[in-house]
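Q: Two folds, back to back.
A: First:
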Amino acid sequence: MLLWLANLGLAGSEAAATVHVLTATDVESSSEVSSPVLTHEYPMISEGDITGEELIMSTDIEICNIALLRLGNDLITSFTDGDKGLTCSKVYPSVKKMLLSIHPWRFATGKRQLARLTAAPVNEWKYAFQLPSDLIAGPHAGYITTDEAATPSKEWKIFEDKIYANSDVFVIDYRYEVTEGRMPAWFQTLIELALCAALAPQLAGDENGTMVTEYNERAFGPRSDNMQGGYFAVCKAINGRTSPNTRIVADDIVNARFG
């Protein structure tokens, strides 16, 4: 959906203030990023309470307002604020959940011991566990112990909104729906760009789809990138540096190859 941030402008005649979202060191070491993405511009609103710096905020309304500004629209104060507010209330949650679900973002990954249900499975498995209500994607790994040396188990399956296993303890790694205040600035920007593409037909009169295509390519690159390019690639590169490299555990295959 969106971006080579250096070229990202906002509709409107207001003077623009450059906001530094990323630094050169954020992108120079990533092989996934084909174009440097360093800065983008937000309009300065001289008579209001919002400045270019304050626009990088942490609520759903503020993120929607940045998208609206990019599309040349007035701001909203709530999701009940006229047709624009109602449209944002319908579109924003689905865009947010979609973006959280398509990549293993570290800031949205949690570990939880599941509650064991009293009713046992009909057959095959001994125990049933309730999946978390805030689950967006996953589980990515399941463990049958709370021991600090635990390794992922393959002895479990998902049925409906439950996990069945033969251990009476079960822990999962999963992606959950985080609040806006816990999202990094770079992910909020990704939402803004994707939101522009989703809102353009309704709120920017983009009948021929020009703005939809533009913002989709800025966010995810051209169609040939399969939604893995654009600013999304930058976000993946940043996310990849928030955790150490995966440790290779020695086994018979590893020993035979490198032993």
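A: Second:
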Amino acid sequence: MEEKLTRRQTEEETGQARLRLPDGVRGVLPRQSLARAVELGIIDAGEFKIQPSSIQPASIDLRLGEVAYRIRCSFLPDTRPVEVKLKEFVVDELDLRRDGAVLETNRPYLIPLIEELQLPPDLGGKTNPKSSTGRLDVFTRVITDQSFRFDEIRPGYRGRLYLEVVPLSFTVRVKQGLALNQLRLSTGPTRLRDDEILALHREQPLLYREGKAVPEKNLATADGLFLSLDLRGDATGRAISFCLRRPSKSRRVTRQRCPHMTRRVGSCAPTTLDSSIRALGSMPPAVSTDRVQPSRCARTMFPS
């Protein structure tokens, strides 16, 4: 009787039972499951309420806490808590409340995040930068207590999350509550085998070329599906890339939408760009290959 009760309690503590997931389900959790995880305290922000706007179709935004630590170099905590090992690397401490603080280029910072996790034993997670963070050329990755890998959260993890931030091209001003990264929770294996990828492509084509589904024999699979870059363009002279102007001032990272965007952040009109890189064979000889950054839209999204 006692053994049966213990087994039942264990089953009820699983994420599958608490989130009311169908039997045998596997993969990344969708919005409704993430919202329930917030209600149950699996994802918790203490006195800071997690707003519905933070929950995306398959991820949840992670927000910066009130302090940023400038550190000597990047590190992993190995078998120790992050806060213990952090003491060996701290150079300075910045207050992110009120007006926030400026993060300098090519210097690593570690920022405790507002959100914390209380994961059941069958739920794990992965983190990645938001697309707006990538467009600013800000390098970010998450670490957790007693961890040996970046951006991976082991099943059953209970504790805080810490974000390493390194501005690569220009200084940025950040403040408490800003979301630079996002979290995905998953249960069971999340990757499709090659035969499953091919079967899915037959049922619902994954790749297209010139408006038609790519034949299965032309798909390149090897523990995943490979994609290729189109560097040839077409007969109309379609641009394959754009060269943007480099800003000189630091940017304040906000959530303001750029009025020059026709649909969403990231779909910048080509008229705001310096020049375009055409298909190979007709590339302007004066085009620089240096890393460049947004100009007009960057100033609007991230005003100085």
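Q: And?
A: Residues 2-13 form the longest helix (12 residues).
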